[in-house]
Design goal:
With 276 residues, the chain is α+β, with helices and mostly antiparallel strands. The chain is built from 11 helices and 6 strands.
């Protein structure tokens, strides 16, 4: 990553650099994968997504991911939030909801839009080959246009929603944002419901309708995801992870993890690293 907070790599390796895709890893910056052609799998936070022609995959900081590609043509754009910041009151992930960590988003583009994105990415790649301070504004502008184009596509599916449907979708987005900010506090469903100005029953019904899970399952799944990330990607011992996740004690953390996965944290760490 360039000190200015931006980089672009050709996934075919034609630029002489190879993206370390086959080993699970995570970054402190955002990534945008544009696949022009090819096949494969993209595992993000332990969920597999197919790699298809004319598709875009989004990865947020902290997410663990790996790629298994076959004859793939495309690029990965890497950037920090500071680099792309629009200087608005809203955060980057609020402006671009497909980066609403921890959820992973995939966009499939029609051929016309894919061609537009391809030309824009090619322009970024040309500038990126000799990227320096004087070109920051130009690269930033190209990247901003790409993100805004993708945002318009992402939001197109929501245009036909009723006002009530839009309101429910917004509440779910707000809940996910609050959860991602506060899951370490182990707050009950009632606390999230109060912050959203809805009842706990309404929040539960909303979660079940949109995602097939209750609100408490959302909370538990977010803790579990962070736990899996730490077990896989760090050398923190179980006690340290338990403390970091704000569990009362290690035994409580062990019981929580085993209830969710049927494995102890130690056993999960052994299996996940062996499988990868």
């Amino acid at each position: 990553m360039d000190p200015l907070g931006f980089d672009i790599l050709d996934l075919s390796g034609k630029d002489g650099r190879v993206y370390d895709s086959e080993s699970p890893h995570r970054h402190t910056f955002f990534e945008l994968f544009f696949f022009e052609s090819g096949k494969g799998l993209h595992e993000v936070d332990f969920t597999n997504y197919p790699v298809e022609a004319n598709s875009v995959h989004f990865v947020s900081p902290g997410q663990i991911h790996q790629l298994s590609l076959k004859n793939t043509k495309g690029f990965v754009l890497c950037f920090t939030e500071d680099f792309i910041s629009l200087k608005t009151k809203d955060s980057f992930t609020e402006n671009f909801p497909f980066y609403n960590n921890p959820a992973s988003a995939v966009l499939r583009l029609d051929k016309i839009i894919a061609k537009e994105i391809s030309l824009l990415v090619a322009a970024v790649n040309r500038e990126g080959k000799t990227f320096h301070t004087d070109q920051t504004e130009l690269v930033h502008s190209y990247l901003n246009i790409i993100l805004l184009k993708l945002k318009s596509i992402y939001l197109q599916d929501k245009k036909n929603e009723t006002s009530a449907g839009k309101s429910r979708t917004q509440k779910m987005t707000q809940f996910k944002k609050l959860l991602n900010e506060s899951f370490l506090k182990h707050q009950p469903v009632s606390a999230y419901a109060a912050a959203l100005n809805v009842s706990p029953n309404y929040l539960n019904a909303l979660c079940k309708k949109h995602e097939g899970r209750t609100a408490i399952q959302f909370i538990q799944d977010r803790l579990l995801l962070e736990s899996k990330r730490l077990l896989y990607a760090t050398d923190m011992d179980i006690k340290e992870i338990s403390f970091y996740l704000n569990f009362e004690d290690v035994s409580y953390y062990n019981r929580f993890f085993k209830k969710q996965t049927n494995l102890t944290p130690v056993r999960y760490r052994e299996q996940s690293r062996k499988n990868h």
